[in-house]
Amino acid sequence: MKFSSDRVLAFFMAMMATSSSLCFGQTAPPGTEQLGPDNTGYCTNQENGRHDYAFTLQGETITIAECDRLCRSNNDLDGLRGFSTYEGDQMCYCWYDDGTAPGMGLPPDECPPGSPFHQCRRWPDGFGPIDALMGTFGFNCFRYLEFPVAQANGDPHFRTWKNEHFEFHGQCDIVMTKVKNFASKDMDLDIHLRTSMVQYWSYIKAASIRIGNDILEVQGSSAAKEDGEDKRHHWINFEYRGDITDLGGFPVTINPRNDKYIIDLDSAYPGQKIEIKNFNEFVGVKIIGATEESFGNAVGITGDFKTGNTYARDGITLLNDFNELGMEWQVLPSDGKLFHEMARPQFPELCYLPEDPRGERARRLDESNITEEQAEAACAGLDDEFDRKGCVYDILATQDLNMVGAY
């Protein structure tokens, strides 16, 4: 049989070759039927990092909204993902992507008139086993979804809700983001960062997250890497190294291998989580899978969720000068006390700013033992462009190639 593209056949063969087991041990969500390798469905892990997963609705008419919801709720990778609906047998098929290349391996074609999807492709009819796996439904359309990710890490690099990157090298406590009525009408979420200045640059030395009445603070440490327990500093409700089970009712786990604290928001917002990672003295925070339902009214130095713009506290004034933005979102007494101890400066004393960060950085780069090329090579394995740029900057600032571990 002839096919319009060799890539189509290669893609099918890859699916067939990897469909012998379920991906990442997933099970079917309630009200759905797990599709396995027995000619009723498939699940694949491919070399490009995508996770493919299919399931059918039981006795219900499949809709785009329902497929969207189910795919989001079953997400176990960060970054971009997609879904498609197969009306022929009420099947919903999800693609999970690690964010390295949206739609990698899935060439775009024009969607039929009236399609709600961004891209489409034709599956070849009559392709033997594929008939049994998927049926022949003519057009199979898929939509890739961008889930906003707010992030702060390193010295300090910020990513706004609309994926813009900037740096603020002042020293003070900063409101990363704040959300009113999070998960319930009487529960708020606040994330504060504490930065510390070293000559012409600064870094995030601690992060504190409050959900409802619970507060988790994580602080970096310069202790020896091999002494994993001793270098982990956290406070739960101001108790040093207190037992952590949950934060505001959301489960918290600690991964000792990469010093990452994970707050699982799945019970209220499927597929969403907050990660805090520390590497030596450096701390980073990443909000993953945010939607308008969960973070729709979020404001802070990472911007306004709905517009992605970096506003002042009045919600009107647009700030494009990032020193002004950092000063604007310095923690005020009205923002509450989230850290276990006070550190200068505290408002009304304003954030400390380096005198000439660009000039001093240029001079230091001229004197560096590690070149920019060496830093780029060390960071080349990072998939995310934001992480690569931050990694290069951090290595050059610290003159430590091991800083790649912060990402």
TrEMBL record:
Residues 148-337 form the VWFD domain. Residues 1-25 form the signal peptide. Keywords: Signal. This is VWFD domain-containing protein.
